[in-house]
Specification:
Elements: E1 3-6, H1 12-27, E2 31-37, H2 41-46, E3 50-54, H3 59-64, H4 73-100, E4 105-108, H5 113-122, E5 126-128, H6 149-154, H7 157-166, H8 171-185, H9 193-197
Parallel strand pairs: 1-2, 1-4, 2-3, 4-5
Helix pairs in contact: 4-5, 4-8, 5-8
């Protein structure tokens, strides 16, 4: 029996699909632990998952922030929050490993940067499990949420490709906190989250 670690991040719409996924994995004979904010403990444990709480770091306040649902601004806020949460996810996983050992597999969205850090530190396979199209940036269908998205969509295709190949507009909001965690854990920090860490090399 393998032990799968789920590290969802965000609102109920981001987290509850992982609870469903965990339940499916349990039915296939796996042991499943989910690390998330305390708000989702009841749902996880009701589905049969082990649960370990991530320190909330003003999660409720973030959801009430005036820019939480504004395109572009919400991405900046989300990356700032996700960067700060990296160290908190690491602490929760360390707590889980004291009772359940090192997991055999990690499933998490691209915004849970601790998942990739744990892969690099522990050598545990990590599958990027994304629920939204934004991580899959396409010059043909430029996703909403990027800065100046309407302007980008009007540019010629070749110019869009050139810009989007190198653009990492939200890195600066999360990368300093992620880099600090990497240095503390003895892991080489990424130069760009979007270019290097959005998608796990183990699978998406």
């Amino acid at each position: 029996m393998s032990h799968v670690l789920l590290l969802p991040h965000g609102t109920a719409g981001d987290v509850l699909p992982y609870v469903w996924l965990g339940r499916q994995l349990i039915q296939h004979g796996h042991e499943v632990t989910m690390a998330c904010v305390e708000l989702f403990r009841e749902a996880a444990e009701h589905a049969g998952l082990h649960f370990v709480a991530v320190e909330e770091d003003e999660f409720a306040e973030r959801m009430r922030h005036p820019t939480a649902w504004e395109p572009g601004k919400s991405m900046r806020l989300g990356h700032e929050f996700a960067g700060r949460c990296t160290v908190k996810y690491l602490a929760a996983v360390e707590e889980s490993m004291r009772s359940h050992g090192i997991p055999h597999l990690i499933l998490a969205p691209m915004i849970t940067f601790a998942a990739r850090l744990l892969r690099e530190k522990l050598g545990v396979p990590f599958i990027s499990t994304n629920l939204q199209p934004l991580p899959f940036v396409s010059a043909h269908e430029v996703p909403g949420g990027l800065p100046a998205v309407w302007w980008l969509r009007r540019l010629p295709l070749l110019l869009r490709k050139l810009i989007l190949t190198h653009a990492a507009p939200y890195d600066r909001f999360a990368l300093p906190a992620v880099r600090q965690c990497c240095l503390e854990q003895g892991v080489r920090p990424p130069r760009s989250l979007r270019q290097e860490w959005y998608h796990s090399p183990d699978g998406v």
